[in-house]
């Protein structure tokens, strides 16, 4: 009897492994499929899953895809099996875009909701999405982000720099777009038929979400901003990690330019111009201290605005560092990529192979 039980257990384990490696064919009977790629963030995944349990609108499933993590969140996902319609998969590391595709292939929703694992949803998130879709159908959509009360002061300062009018992130926190709205992968929705027709995310390492949004427009589809479907987005937990994130975003902009030359707009040049301007002013400081005046005035402007918005002078001071890092990090990534790709003629992977999948 013991031998039979062992054999049965082995067969069951084998079948489970087969199912985890291959797409599950299911009837498309779910309104939304939430796709969450995770890389070494079990605590943040736990917070996101908790927020999903509190949604007033319940017609959704959750697909967690572990992208080769050394600190997996399988135990976290299993704690929600009796509360959420949730499935967990683990795969070798391949980057966020391909991990989202992996989850999408195993989902069954009419719409795919792409979220980053460092997000928290307000209780009315899906209700807001549903309200917008009931007003008018959408091929793809997205929403803004905010800072949660539980965020550290550094995280709130980083959020300020990514949403403020006085940085290049001004539109993210608002209700209007000056031109086309390009959803980002931290809070993106797309109709399944559109996702499958376009083949999902490309193999780009940086800017794969903007690349996908560009292909949505090129495919004749439309994207909409859903102002009420906002999320709390942690982004990075310290300024060093934040610099790396925005530096890679600057690299991504040149990579996107090489692929879609028309995608480069004047606004994308502002961080590069700001970086060059700061460098020139600092170089002139030993000869004329007044050259530091524009830098000081900008720092004062950021500090005042952030202090009033966050009701905290401490966050206001941190926001000075976050704003300069956001602009200069992006700007240096932009100039670096411009040199490697446009001047030296290197391809995307050759130019930045040390940046991939880290």
UniProtKB/TrEMBL annotation:
<keyword id="KW-0472">Membrane</keyword>
<dbReference type="InterPro" id="IPR050834">
    <property type="entry name" value="Glycosyltransf_2"/>
</dbReference>
<keyword id="KW-0328">Glycosyltransferase</keyword>
<dbReference type="Pfam" id="PF00535">
    <property type="entry name" value="Glycos_transf_2"/>
</dbReference>
<feature type="transmembrane region" description="Helical">
    <location>
        <begin position="273"/>
        <end position="303"/>
    </location>
</feature>
<protein>
    <submittedName>
        <fullName>GalNAc(5)-diNAcBac-PP-undecaprenol beta-1,3-glucosyltransferase</fullName>
        <ecNumber>2.4.1.293</ecNumber>
    </submittedName>
</protein>
<keyword id="KW-1133">Transmembrane helix</keyword>
<dbReference type="InterPro" id="IPR001173">
    <property type="entry name" value="Glyco_trans_2-like"/>
</dbReference>
<keyword id="KW-0808">Transferase</keyword>
<feature type="domain" description="Glycosyltransferase 2-like">
    <location>
        <begin position="33"/>
        <end position="198"/>
    </location>
</feature>
<keyword id="KW-0812">Transmembrane</keyword>
<feature type="transmembrane region" description="Helical">
    <location>
        <begin position="315"/>
        <end position="339"/>
    </location>
</feature>
<dbReference type="InterPro" id="IPR029044">
    <property type="entry name" value="Nucleotide-diphossugar_trans"/>
</dbReference>
<dbReference type="GO" id="GO:0016757">
    <property type="term" value="F:glycosyltransferase activity"/>
</dbReference>
């Amino acid at each position: 009897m013991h031998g039979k039980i062992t054999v049965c257990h082995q067969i069951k384990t084998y079948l489970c492994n087969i199912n985890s490696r291959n797409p599950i064919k299911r009837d498309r009977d779910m309104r939304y499929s939430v796709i969450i790629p995770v890389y070494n963030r079990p605590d943040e995944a736990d917070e996101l899953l908790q927020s999903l349990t509190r949604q007033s609108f319940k017609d959704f499933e959750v697909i967690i895809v572990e992208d080769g993590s050394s600190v997996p969140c399988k135990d976290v996902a299993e704690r929600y099996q009796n509360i959420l319609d949730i499935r967990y998969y683990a795969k070798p590391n391949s980057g966020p875009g391909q991990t989202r595709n992996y989850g999408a292939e195993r989902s069954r929703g009419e719409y795919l909701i792409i979220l980053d694992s460092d997000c928290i949803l307000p209780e009315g998130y899906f209700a807001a999405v549903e309200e917008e879709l009931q007003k008018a159908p959408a091929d793809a959509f997205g929403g803004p982000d905010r800072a949660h009360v539980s965020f550290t002061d550094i995280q709130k300062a980083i959020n300020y720099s990514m949403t403020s009018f006085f940085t290049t992130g001004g539109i993210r926190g608002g209700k209007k777009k000056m031109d086309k709205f390009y959803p980002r992968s931290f809070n993106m929705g797309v109709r399944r038929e559109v996702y499958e027709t376009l083949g999902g995310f490309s193999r780009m390492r940086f800017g794969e979400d903007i690349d996908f949004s560009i292909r949505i427009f090129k495919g004749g589809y439309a994207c909409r901003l859903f102002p009420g479907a906002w999320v709390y987005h942690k982004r990075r937990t310290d300024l060093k990690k934040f610099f790396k994130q925005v530096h890679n975003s600057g690299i991504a902009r040149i990579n996107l330019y090489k692929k879609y030359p028309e995608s480069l707009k004047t606004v994308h040049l502002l961080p590069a111009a700001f970086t060059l301007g700061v460098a020139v002013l600092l170089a002139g400081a030993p000869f004329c201290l007044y050259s530091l005046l524009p830098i000081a005035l900008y720092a004062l402007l950021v500090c005042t605005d952030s202090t009033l918005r966050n009701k905290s002078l401490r966050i206001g001071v941190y926001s000075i560092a976050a704003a300069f890092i956001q602009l200069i990090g992006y700007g240096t990534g932009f100039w670096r990529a411009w040199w490697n790709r446009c001047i030296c003629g290197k391809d995307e992977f050759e130019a930045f192979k040390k940046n991939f999948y880290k």
